[in-house]
Amino acid sequence: MQDEKQDLELFDKLVGHIGEFVERDVSHLTPRSHLNNSIEGMSSLKMIELLLYLEDCFGVDFEESAMDKLETMQDLEDYIRQTQDAARQQA
């Protein structure tokens, strides 16, 4: 139950930050939403800018090799969670 709540909190924060970045309502996004198709006006350059913005928001680094694998909102959420968990374990 606690894990589900944390999942929802992270997803809600992620949607909120994306909405701030693109300056429009993105509340329609779900974990299965494809990043390039579901966010209006999302070009390859905009995607890189978004990931840089999210690095600051969540305190993570998106490795170049991982960026190509981030296709859905779930992929993005999982990457952020795994990166944050790994950082906590090293601390």
From TrEMBL:
The record, for InterPro entries, names:
ACP-like_sf, PP-bd_ACP
Q: Which residues form the Carrier domain?
A: 6-84
Show the Gene3D superfamilies listed in the entry. Answer: ACP-like (1.10.1200.10)
Q: What is this protein called?
A: Carrier domain-containing protein
**Species the sequence originates in:** Streptomyces davaonensis (strain DSM 101723 / JCM 4913 / KCC S-0913 / 768)
